[in-house]
Amino acid sequence: MNRAALFVLADGRFPAGGHAHSGGAEPAVAAGRIKDAASLEDFCRGRLHTAGLVAAGLAAASAAGHDPLELDEAADARTPVPALRTTARKLGRQMMRAARATWPSGELDALAAARPRGAHQPVVLGLAARSAGLAPLDAAYAAAYETVSGPATATVRLLSLDPFDATAVLARLAPDLDKTAAAAAAAAQRIPEDGTDALPAASAPLLDITAQQHAAWPVRLFAS
Amino acid sequence: MTLAAPPTVPAAPRAAVGVRATARVSAATSGGTTTLPVLDGDGPFELRRLRSRGTEARVCVVGAMSAPLGGDRLRIEATAQQGAALHITSAAATLALRGPTTEPATYDVQLTVEEHAELHWLPKPLICAAGSNLRQTWTIHLAPTARLVLREEQILGRTGEPPGHVATRLTVRRAGRTLLDQEAEYGPGAPGWDGPAVLAGHRATGQLLVVDPAFENRPPEVQLLGDSPQDGQAVLTPLAGPAALATATAPDALRLRHLLDTAHT
Protein backbone atom coordinates (compact mmCIF):
# COMPACT_ATOMS: atom_id res chain seq x y z
CA MET A 1 0.00 0.00 0.00
CA ASN A 2 1.53 3.22 -1.19
CA ARG A 3 -1.03 6.02 -0.91
CA ALA A 4 1.26 8.71 -2.32
CA ALA A 5 0.97 7.03 -5.74
CA LEU A 6 -2.63 8.30 -5.82
CA PHE A 7 -1.35 11.88 -6.08
CA VAL A 8 0.79 10.91 -9.06
CA LEU A 9 -2.11 9.12 -10.77
CA ALA A 10 -4.77 11.75 -10.07
CA ASP A 11 -2.56 14.75 -10.83
CA GLY A 12 -3.88 16.73 -13.79
CA ARG A 13 -0.30 16.75 -15.10
CA PHE A 14 -0.13 12.95 -15.29
CA PRO A 15 0.71 12.56 -18.99
CA ALA A 16 -2.37 10.61 -20.07
CA GLY A 17 -3.87 13.16 -22.44
CA GLY A 18 -6.86 14.22 -20.33
CA HIS A 19 -6.13 17.94 -20.79
CA ALA A 20 -7.33 17.76 -24.41
CA HIS A 21 -10.86 16.75 -23.33
CA SER A 22 -13.58 18.89 -21.79
CA GLY A 23 -15.85 16.06 -20.63
CA GLY A 24 -18.83 17.58 -22.42
CA ALA A 25 -18.20 21.11 -21.13
CA GLU A 26 -17.39 22.54 -24.57
CA PRO A 27 -20.83 21.82 -26.12
CA ALA A 28 -22.54 22.86 -22.86
CA VAL A 29 -20.71 26.21 -22.88
CA ALA A 30 -21.52 26.72 -26.56
CA ALA A 31 -25.22 26.04 -25.89
CA GLY A 32 -25.23 28.49 -22.98
CA ARG A 33 -25.96 25.76 -20.46
CA ILE A 34 -22.70 26.41 -18.62
CA LYS A 35 -22.38 30.18 -18.24
CA ASP A 36 -20.94 30.74 -14.76
CA ALA A 37 -19.64 28.96 -11.67
CA ALA A 38 -23.15 27.94 -10.51
CA SER A 39 -24.08 26.25 -13.80
CA LEU A 40 -20.62 24.65 -13.96
CA GLU A 41 -21.31 23.15 -10.54
CA ASP A 42 -24.70 21.81 -11.71
CA PHE A 43 -23.05 20.33 -14.77
CA CYS A 44 -20.28 18.71 -12.75
CA ARG A 45 -22.71 17.32 -10.18
CA GLY A 46 -24.80 15.70 -12.93
CA ARG A 47 -21.73 14.30 -14.67
CA LEU A 48 -20.25 13.01 -11.42
CA HIS A 49 -23.39 11.08 -10.44
CA THR A 50 -23.78 9.55 -13.92
CA ALA A 51 -20.65 9.15 -16.06
CA GLY A 52 -18.45 9.66 -12.99
CA LEU A 53 -20.13 6.93 -10.98
CA VAL A 54 -19.90 4.50 -13.90
CA ALA A 55 -16.20 5.30 -14.46
CA ALA A 56 -15.47 4.99 -10.74
CA GLY A 57 -17.19 1.60 -10.58
CA LEU A 58 -15.20 0.28 -13.53
CA ALA A 59 -11.95 1.66 -12.12
CA ALA A 60 -12.58 0.15 -8.68
CA ALA A 61 -13.45 -3.22 -10.20
CA SER A 62 -10.33 -3.17 -12.36
CA ALA A 63 -8.16 -2.19 -9.40
CA ALA A 64 -9.66 -5.09 -7.45
CA GLY A 65 -8.34 -7.47 -10.08
CA HIS A 66 -11.53 -8.38 -11.95
CA ASP A 67 -11.08 -9.46 -15.57
CA PRO A 68 -10.33 -6.23 -17.47
CA LEU A 69 -11.71 -7.62 -20.73
CA GLU A 70 -15.03 -8.39 -19.09
CA LEU A 71 -15.02 -4.89 -17.59
CA ASP A 72 -14.22 -3.45 -21.02
CA GLU A 73 -17.32 -5.18 -22.36
CA ALA A 74 -19.36 -3.83 -19.43
CA ALA A 75 -18.05 -0.36 -20.29
CA ASP A 76 -19.23 -0.76 -23.91
CA ALA A 77 -22.72 -1.74 -22.71
CA ARG A 78 -22.75 1.42 -20.57
CA THR A 79 -21.61 3.72 -23.38
CA PRO A 80 -24.33 3.85 -26.02
CA VAL A 81 -22.84 6.56 -28.23
CA PRO A 82 -19.86 5.78 -30.45
CA ALA A 83 -18.28 9.22 -29.94
CA LEU A 84 -17.84 8.44 -26.25
CA ARG A 85 -16.68 4.85 -26.87
CA THR A 86 -14.02 6.20 -29.23
CA THR A 87 -12.96 8.85 -26.73
CA ALA A 88 -12.81 6.33 -23.88
CA ARG A 89 -10.60 3.98 -25.89
CA LYS A 90 -8.35 6.78 -27.13
CA LEU A 91 -7.86 7.99 -23.55
CA GLY A 92 -7.40 4.39 -22.45
CA ARG A 93 -4.58 3.91 -24.91
CA GLN A 94 -2.85 7.09 -23.73
CA MET A 95 -3.34 6.10 -20.09
CA MET A 96 -1.87 2.70 -20.90
CA ARG A 97 1.32 4.23 -22.33
CA ALA A 98 1.78 6.45 -19.30
CA ALA A 99 0.94 3.69 -16.82
CA ARG A 100 3.27 1.12 -18.35
CA ALA A 101 6.12 3.62 -18.15
CA THR A 102 5.21 4.64 -14.60
CA TRP A 103 4.16 1.39 -12.91
CA PRO A 104 5.16 -1.46 -15.25
CA SER A 105 3.26 -4.69 -14.66
CA GLY A 106 2.41 -7.91 -16.42
CA GLU A 107 -1.30 -7.17 -16.06
CA LEU A 108 -0.94 -3.86 -17.91
CA ASP A 109 1.11 -5.61 -20.61
CA ALA A 110 -1.56 -8.28 -21.01
CA LEU A 111 -4.38 -5.75 -21.39
CA ALA A 112 -2.33 -3.67 -23.83
CA ALA A 113 -1.75 -6.80 -25.92
CA ALA A 114 -5.42 -7.80 -25.82
CA ARG A 115 -6.70 -4.29 -26.66
CA PRO A 116 -4.00 -2.69 -28.84
CA ARG A 117 -6.35 0.11 -29.89
CA GLY A 118 -7.15 0.92 -26.30
CA ALA A 119 -9.45 -0.38 -23.57
CA HIS A 120 -11.96 1.95 -21.93
CA GLN A 121 -10.01 4.51 -19.92
CA PRO A 122 -11.47 3.74 -16.44
CA VAL A 123 -10.53 0.07 -16.85
CA VAL A 124 -6.93 1.06 -17.66
CA LEU A 125 -6.93 3.62 -14.86
CA GLY A 126 -8.02 0.96 -12.39
CA LEU A 127 -5.34 -1.43 -13.56
CA ALA A 128 -2.75 1.36 -13.32
CA ALA A 129 -3.86 1.97 -9.73
CA ARG A 130 -3.53 -1.76 -9.06
CA SER A 131 -0.03 -1.79 -10.53
CA ALA A 132 0.84 1.19 -8.34
CA GLY A 133 -0.26 -0.73 -5.25
CA LEU A 134 -3.40 1.35 -4.71
CA ALA A 135 -6.75 0.13 -3.41
CA PRO A 136 -10.03 -0.07 -5.39
CA LEU A 137 -11.40 2.92 -3.44
CA ASP A 138 -8.34 4.96 -4.48
CA ALA A 139 -8.99 4.12 -8.13
CA ALA A 140 -12.65 5.09 -7.71
CA TYR A 141 -11.57 8.47 -6.29
CA ALA A 142 -9.17 9.10 -9.16
CA ALA A 143 -11.82 8.24 -11.78
CA ALA A 144 -14.57 10.24 -10.09
CA TYR A 145 -12.38 13.29 -9.53
CA GLU A 146 -11.27 13.29 -13.14
CA THR A 147 -14.89 13.45 -14.37
CA VAL A 148 -15.32 16.84 -12.68
CA SER A 149 -11.81 18.30 -12.77
CA GLY A 150 -11.72 17.96 -16.57
CA PRO A 151 -14.86 20.06 -17.22
CA ALA A 152 -13.87 22.59 -14.53
CA THR A 153 -10.44 23.18 -16.06
CA ALA A 154 -11.90 23.28 -19.57
CA THR A 155 -14.49 25.86 -18.53
CA VAL A 156 -11.75 28.15 -17.24
CA ARG A 157 -10.40 28.19 -20.78
CA LEU A 158 -13.76 28.22 -22.61
CA LEU A 159 -15.49 30.90 -20.55
CA SER A 160 -12.49 32.70 -19.06
CA LEU A 161 -13.99 31.65 -15.75
CA ASP A 162 -11.94 32.70 -12.74
CA PRO A 163 -9.76 29.70 -11.80
CA PHE A 164 -10.46 30.41 -8.12
CA ASP A 165 -14.20 30.02 -8.81
CA ALA A 166 -13.64 26.79 -10.74
CA THR A 167 -11.56 25.38 -7.90
CA ALA A 168 -14.25 26.39 -5.40
CA VAL A 169 -16.75 24.39 -7.47
CA LEU A 170 -14.52 21.32 -7.11
CA ALA A 171 -14.20 21.92 -3.38
CA ARG A 172 -17.99 22.14 -2.99
CA LEU A 173 -18.32 18.82 -4.82
CA ALA A 174 -16.02 17.05 -2.36
CA PRO A 175 -18.86 15.47 -0.33
CA ASP A 176 -20.43 14.19 -3.57
CA LEU A 177 -17.04 12.81 -4.61
CA ASP A 178 -16.76 10.93 -1.32
CA LYS A 179 -20.22 9.41 -1.80
CA THR A 180 -19.59 8.52 -5.43
CA ALA A 181 -16.25 6.84 -4.78
CA ALA A 182 -17.65 4.90 -1.82
CA ALA A 183 -20.71 3.74 -3.82
CA ALA A 184 -18.48 2.71 -6.74
CA ALA A 185 -16.10 0.72 -4.53
CA ALA A 186 -19.02 -0.96 -2.76
CA ALA A 187 -20.55 -1.94 -6.11
CA ALA A 188 -17.23 -3.43 -7.26
CA GLN A 189 -17.21 -5.61 -4.14
CA ARG A 190 -20.49 -7.21 -5.25
CA ILE A 191 -19.05 -8.49 -8.54
CA PRO A 192 -18.23 -11.98 -7.16
CA GLU A 193 -21.95 -12.55 -6.45
CA ASP A 194 -23.67 -10.48 -9.15
CA GLY A 195 -21.10 -10.24 -11.96
CA THR A 196 -20.58 -6.94 -13.77
CA ASP A 197 -24.33 -6.22 -13.41
CA ALA A 198 -23.36 -5.04 -9.93
CA LEU A 199 -21.57 -2.04 -11.42
CA PRO A 200 -23.41 1.27 -11.76
CA ALA A 201 -24.82 2.09 -15.20
CA ALA A 202 -26.08 5.64 -14.61
CA SER A 203 -26.71 7.64 -17.75
CA ALA A 204 -27.17 11.30 -18.68
CA PRO A 205 -29.12 11.85 -21.92
CA LEU A 206 -27.61 15.25 -22.71
CA LEU A 207 -24.02 14.09 -22.18
CA ASP A 208 -24.64 11.34 -24.74
CA ILE A 209 -26.52 13.54 -27.21
CA THR A 210 -24.13 16.47 -27.09
CA ALA A 211 -20.99 14.28 -27.19
CA GLN A 212 -22.16 12.85 -30.51
CA GLN A 213 -23.08 16.32 -31.82
CA HIS A 214 -19.72 17.72 -30.68
CA ALA A 215 -17.82 14.99 -32.53
CA ALA A 216 -19.31 16.36 -35.77
CA TRP A 217 -18.17 19.95 -35.17
CA PRO A 218 -15.69 20.97 -37.88
CA VAL A 219 -13.69 23.17 -35.46
CA ARG A 220 -13.41 22.61 -31.72
CA LEU A 221 -11.03 23.47 -28.94
CA PHE A 222 -11.30 20.11 -27.17
CA ALA A 223 -11.32 16.58 -28.55
CA SER A 224 -14.44 15.70 -26.56
CA MET B 1 -32.16 -21.74 -27.21
CA THR B 2 -28.94 -20.10 -26.18
CA LEU B 3 -30.43 -17.60 -23.80
CA ALA B 4 -28.77 -17.14 -20.43
CA ALA B 5 -30.71 -17.91 -17.31
CA PRO B 6 -32.94 -14.99 -16.34
CA PRO B 7 -31.35 -12.71 -13.74
CA THR B 8 -32.70 -12.83 -10.26
CA VAL B 9 -34.89 -9.87 -9.44
CA PRO B 10 -33.91 -8.43 -6.09
CA ALA B 11 -36.53 -9.34 -3.55
CA ALA B 12 -38.43 -6.25 -2.49
CA PRO B 13 -39.35 -5.86 1.14
CA ARG B 14 -42.97 -6.68 1.60
CA ALA B 15 -45.12 -3.63 1.15
CA ALA B 16 -47.59 -2.82 3.87
CA VAL B 17 -50.04 -1.76 1.21
CA GLY B 18 -50.12 -1.90 -2.54
CA VAL B 19 -51.10 -4.11 -5.40
CA ARG B 20 -49.02 -7.11 -6.44
CA ALA B 21 -49.72 -8.14 -9.99
CA THR B 22 -47.98 -10.02 -12.80
CA ALA B 23 -49.43 -10.05 -16.31
CA ARG B 24 -48.13 -12.59 -18.82
CA VAL B 25 -48.18 -12.80 -22.61
CA SER B 26 -46.67 -15.49 -24.75
CA ALA B 27 -46.78 -15.63 -28.53
CA ALA B 28 -46.12 -18.71 -30.65
CA THR B 29 -46.34 -19.56 -34.34
CA SER B 30 -48.94 -21.91 -35.66
CA GLY B 31 -49.75 -22.48 -39.34
CA GLY B 32 -47.89 -19.37 -40.51
CA THR B 33 -49.54 -17.01 -38.09
CA THR B 34 -48.83 -15.92 -34.51
CA THR B 35 -51.08 -17.23 -31.75
CA LEU B 36 -51.24 -16.21 -28.11
CA PRO B 37 -51.22 -19.35 -25.96
CA VAL B 38 -50.82 -17.17 -22.86
CA LEU B 39 -52.69 -13.89 -22.38
CA ASP B 40 -53.16 -13.40 -18.65
CA GLY B 41 -53.95 -9.99 -17.29
CA ASP B 42 -53.63 -9.26 -13.59
CA GLY B 43 -54.40 -6.36 -11.26
CA PRO B 44 -54.16 -3.10 -13.17
CA PHE B 45 -53.16 -4.82 -16.42
CA GLU B 46 -56.01 -5.98 -18.62
CA LEU B 47 -54.75 -7.53 -21.85
CA ARG B 48 -56.75 -7.23 -25.06
CA ARG B 49 -55.96 -8.95 -28.28
CA LEU B 50 -56.16 -6.55 -31.23
CA ARG B 51 -56.69 -7.42 -34.88
CA SER B 52 -53.54 -9.11 -36.23
CA ARG B 53 -51.39 -7.34 -38.78
CA GLY B 54 -50.00 -9.88 -41.25
CA THR B 55 -48.38 -12.64 -39.21
CA GLU B 56 -47.99 -10.35 -36.20
CA ALA B 57 -50.16 -10.81 -33.12
CA ARG B 58 -51.02 -7.55 -31.39
CA VAL B 59 -51.84 -7.00 -27.75
CA CYS B 60 -52.99 -3.85 -25.99
CA VAL B 61 -52.44 -3.31 -22.26
CA VAL B 62 -55.50 -1.56 -20.84
CA GLY B 63 -55.33 0.04 -17.40
CA ALA B 64 -57.97 -1.50 -15.18
CA MET B 65 -57.15 0.61 -12.13
CA SER B 66 -54.98 3.56 -11.20
CA ALA B 67 -51.40 2.25 -11.02
CA PRO B 68 -48.63 2.36 -10.15
CA LEU B 69 -49.17 3.92 -6.75
CA GLY B 70 -46.55 3.93 -3.98
CA GLY B 71 -46.04 0.41 -2.66
CA ASP B 72 -47.34 -1.40 -5.76
CA ARG B 73 -45.31 -4.30 -7.17
CA LEU B 74 -46.19 -4.61 -10.83
CA ARG B 75 -44.72 -6.90 -13.43
CA ILE B 76 -45.32 -7.76 -17.08
CA GLU B 77 -43.64 -10.75 -18.72
CA ALA B 78 -43.85 -11.16 -22.47
CA THR B 79 -42.27 -13.84 -24.63
CA ALA B 80 -42.13 -14.14 -28.39
CA GLN B 81 -41.40 -17.82 -28.91
CA GLN B 82 -39.37 -19.12 -31.82
CA GLY B 83 -40.50 -17.48 -35.07
CA ALA B 84 -43.37 -15.52 -33.50
CA ALA B 85 -44.10 -11.82 -34.12
CA LEU B 86 -45.63 -9.97 -31.20
CA HIS B 87 -46.57 -6.31 -30.91
CA ILE B 88 -47.51 -4.87 -27.53
CA THR B 89 -48.88 -1.41 -26.96
CA SER B 90 -50.98 0.31 -24.31
CA ALA B 91 -54.31 2.08 -24.46
CA ALA B 92 -53.25 5.07 -22.41
CA ALA B 93 -50.27 6.66 -20.74
CA THR B 94 -49.15 5.06 -17.47
CA LEU B 95 -49.61 7.54 -14.63
CA ALA B 96 -47.44 7.03 -11.56
CA LEU B 97 -49.06 8.65 -8.52
CA ARG B 98 -48.07 9.06 -4.91
CA GLY B 99 -50.56 6.64 -3.41
CA PRO B 100 -51.08 5.87 0.26
CA THR B 101 -47.39 5.39 1.11
CA THR B 102 -44.13 7.12 0.28
CA GLU B 103 -42.59 3.73 -0.45
CA PRO B 104 -41.58 3.37 -4.10
CA ALA B 105 -43.70 1.44 -6.53
CA THR B 106 -41.93 -1.08 -8.73
CA TYR B 107 -42.81 -1.85 -12.31
CA ASP B 108 -40.70 -4.56 -13.93
CA VAL B 109 -40.96 -5.54 -17.55
CA GLN B 110 -39.33 -8.77 -18.69
CA LEU B 111 -39.18 -9.41 -22.42
CA THR B 112 -37.86 -12.59 -24.02
CA VAL B 113 -37.42 -12.97 -27.75
CA GLU B 114 -36.44 -16.39 -29.04
CA GLU B 115 -34.76 -17.40 -32.32
CA HIS B 116 -36.20 -15.73 -35.46
CA ALA B 117 -38.88 -14.05 -33.36
CA GLU B 118 -39.72 -10.36 -33.25
CA LEU B 119 -41.13 -8.23 -30.45
CA HIS B 120 -42.37 -4.66 -30.57
CA TRP B 121 -42.81 -3.06 -27.14
CA LEU B 122 -44.35 0.32 -27.88
CA PRO B 123 -46.45 1.50 -24.94
CA LYS B 124 -47.67 5.03 -24.37
CA PRO B 125 -45.47 7.20 -22.11
CA LEU B 126 -44.99 6.97 -18.38
CA ILE B 127 -46.04 10.14 -16.58
CA CYS B 128 -44.39 10.69 -13.20
CA ALA B 129 -46.86 12.87 -11.29
CA ALA B 130 -45.77 15.10 -8.41
CA GLY B 131 -45.08 13.05 -5.30
CA SER B 132 -44.82 9.73 -7.12
CA ASN B 133 -41.85 7.42 -6.59
CA LEU B 134 -41.30 4.65 -9.10
CA ARG B 135 -38.58 2.13 -9.89
CA GLN B 136 -38.97 0.71 -13.36
CA THR B 137 -36.84 -1.98 -14.97
CA TRP B 138 -36.78 -3.57 -18.40
CA THR B 139 -34.88 -6.83 -18.54
CA ILE B 140 -34.61 -8.18 -22.05
CA HIS B 141 -33.26 -11.48 -23.32
CA LEU B 142 -32.66 -11.81 -27.03
CA ALA B 143 -31.62 -14.89 -28.97
CA PRO B 144 -28.94 -14.22 -31.64
CA THR B 145 -31.53 -14.03 -34.46
CA ALA B 146 -34.19 -12.18 -32.44
CA ARG B 147 -35.40 -8.72 -33.39
CA LEU B 148 -36.64 -6.08 -31.00
CA VAL B 149 -38.16 -2.61 -31.22
CA LEU B 150 -38.61 -0.96 -27.83
CA ARG B 151 -39.65 2.55 -26.94
CA GLU B 152 -39.78 4.03 -23.47
CA GLU B 153 -40.71 7.60 -22.61
CA GLN B 154 -40.78 9.37 -19.26
CA ILE B 155 -42.75 12.55 -18.77
CA LEU B 156 -41.66 14.26 -15.57
CA GLY B 157 -44.75 15.78 -14.00
CA ARG B 158 -48.11 16.60 -15.47
CA THR B 159 -48.41 20.05 -17.06
CA GLY B 160 -47.49 22.75 -14.58
CA GLU B 161 -46.62 20.49 -11.64
CA PRO B 162 -43.24 19.42 -10.31
CA PRO B 163 -42.05 15.94 -11.28
CA GLY B 164 -42.19 12.77 -9.25
CA HIS B 165 -39.11 10.64 -8.69
CA VAL B 166 -38.29 7.83 -11.10
CA ALA B 167 -35.34 5.45 -11.31
CA THR B 168 -35.02 3.09 -14.25
CA ARG B 169 -32.73 0.34 -15.46
CA LEU B 170 -32.74 -1.06 -18.96
CA THR B 171 -30.68 -4.22 -19.45
CA VAL B 172 -30.51 -5.97 -22.78
CA ARG B 173 -28.80 -9.32 -23.07
CA ARG B 174 -28.24 -10.77 -26.50
CA ALA B 175 -26.78 -14.18 -27.12
CA GLY B 176 -25.61 -14.33 -23.51
CA ARG B 177 -23.77 -10.98 -23.53
CA THR B 178 -24.92 -7.61 -22.24
CA LEU B 179 -25.62 -5.36 -25.19
CA LEU B 180 -26.90 -2.36 -23.25
CA ASP B 181 -27.11 -1.53 -19.57
CA GLN B 182 -28.46 1.85 -18.57
CA GLU B 183 -29.78 3.38 -15.41
CA ALA B 184 -31.47 6.76 -15.14
CA GLU B 185 -32.75 8.72 -12.19
CA TYR B 186 -34.81 11.88 -12.40
CA GLY B 187 -36.84 14.06 -10.08
CA PRO B 188 -36.46 15.27 -6.49
CA GLY B 189 -33.49 13.71 -4.73
CA ALA B 190 -31.63 12.66 -7.89
CA PRO B 191 -28.39 14.72 -7.87
CA GLY B 192 -27.88 16.91 -10.93
CA TRP B 193 -30.84 15.45 -12.87
CA ASP B 194 -32.18 18.86 -13.93
CA GLY B 195 -28.78 20.40 -14.61
CA PRO B 196 -26.89 21.04 -17.85
CA ALA B 197 -25.34 17.55 -18.04
CA VAL B 198 -28.52 15.52 -17.72
CA LEU B 199 -31.85 17.08 -18.78
CA ALA B 200 -31.23 20.86 -18.59
CA GLY B 201 -34.80 21.72 -17.71
CA HIS B 202 -36.40 19.30 -20.14
CA ARG B 203 -39.40 17.44 -18.77
CA ALA B 204 -39.57 14.60 -21.28
CA THR B 205 -36.95 12.00 -22.14
CA GLY B 206 -37.02 8.70 -23.88
CA GLN B 207 -35.31 6.10 -25.98
CA LEU B 208 -36.03 3.94 -28.95
CA LEU B 209 -34.02 0.76 -29.25
CA VAL B 210 -33.89 -1.39 -32.37
CA VAL B 211 -31.98 -4.68 -32.27
CA ASP B 212 -31.67 -6.45 -35.58
CA PRO B 213 -29.08 -9.08 -36.58
CA ALA B 214 -29.02 -7.44 -40.04
CA PHE B 215 -27.03 -4.60 -38.40
CA GLU B 216 -24.09 -7.04 -38.03
CA ASN B 217 -23.20 -6.51 -41.67
CA ARG B 218 -24.69 -3.06 -42.12
CA PRO B 219 -24.41 -1.04 -38.91
CA PRO B 220 -26.83 1.87 -38.55
CA GLU B 221 -25.39 5.32 -39.20
CA VAL B 222 -25.24 8.09 -36.65
CA GLN B 223 -28.03 10.64 -37.05
CA LEU B 224 -28.32 13.94 -35.22
CA LEU B 225 -31.98 14.82 -34.79
CA GLY B 226 -33.76 18.01 -33.73
CA ASP B 227 -33.42 21.25 -35.69
CA SER B 228 -33.75 23.71 -32.81
CA PRO B 229 -32.51 22.86 -29.31
CA GLN B 230 -35.54 24.52 -27.67
CA ASP B 231 -37.72 21.82 -29.27
CA GLY B 232 -35.53 19.06 -27.86
CA GLN B 233 -32.69 17.05 -29.31
CA ALA B 234 -31.84 13.46 -30.04
CA VAL B 235 -29.19 11.22 -31.53
CA LEU B 236 -29.53 7.86 -33.19
CA THR B 237 -26.37 5.85 -32.68
CA PRO B 238 -25.12 2.30 -33.23
CA LEU B 239 -24.42 0.37 -30.04
CA ALA B 240 -21.38 -1.89 -29.67
CA GLY B 241 -23.45 -4.69 -31.22
CA PRO B 242 -26.15 -5.05 -33.90
CA ALA B 243 -28.45 -2.38 -32.51
CA ALA B 244 -29.41 1.27 -32.84
CA LEU B 245 -30.45 3.46 -29.96
CA ALA B 246 -32.16 6.81 -30.21
CA THR B 247 -31.81 8.97 -27.11
CA ALA B 248 -33.97 12.07 -26.85
CA THR B 249 -34.83 14.89 -24.48
CA ALA B 250 -37.56 17.44 -25.13
CA PRO B 251 -39.67 20.03 -23.33
CA ASP B 252 -42.81 17.89 -23.54
CA ALA B 253 -44.29 14.56 -24.58
CA LEU B 254 -45.39 15.70 -28.02
CA ARG B 255 -42.00 16.96 -29.08
CA LEU B 256 -40.32 13.91 -27.55
CA ARG B 257 -42.49 11.57 -29.62
CA HIS B 258 -41.78 13.61 -32.73
CA LEU B 259 -38.03 13.11 -32.23
CA LEU B 260 -38.35 9.39 -31.59
CA ASP B 261 -40.68 8.94 -34.56
CA THR B 262 -38.14 10.73 -36.76
CA ALA B 263 -35.49 8.27 -35.55
CA HIS B 264 -37.69 5.32 -36.40
CA THR B 265 -38.33 6.15 -40.05
From TrEMBL, chain A:
Gene3D superfamilies: Urease accessory protein UreF. Keywords: Chaperone, Cytoplasm, Nickel insertion. It comes from the Bacteria. It is found in: Cytoplasm. InterPro entries: UreF, UreF_sf. Required for maturation of urease via the functional incorporation of the urease nickel metallocenter. PANTHER family: UREASE ACCESSORY PROTEIN F. HAMAP family: UreF (MF_01385). Belongs to the UreF family. This is Urease accessory protein UreF. It comes from Streptomyces gossypii.
TrEMBL record, chain B:
It is found in: Cytoplasm. The keyword Nucleotide-binding does not apply. Keywords: Chaperone, Cytoplasm, Nickel insertion. It comes from the Bacteria. Its main location: cytoplasm. Pfam families: UreD. The keyword Cytoplasm applies. Required for maturation of urease via the functional incorporation of the urease nickel metallocenter. Belongs to the UreD family. UreD, UreF and UreG form a complex that acts as a GTP-hydrolysis-dependent molecular chaperone, activating the urease apoprotein by helping to assemble the nickel containing metallocenter of UreC. The UreE protein probably delivers the nickel. This is Urease accessory protein UreD. It comes from Streptomyces gossypii. The lineage of its organism: Bacteria, Bacillati, Actinomycetota, Actinomycetes, Kitasatosporales. The gene is ureD.
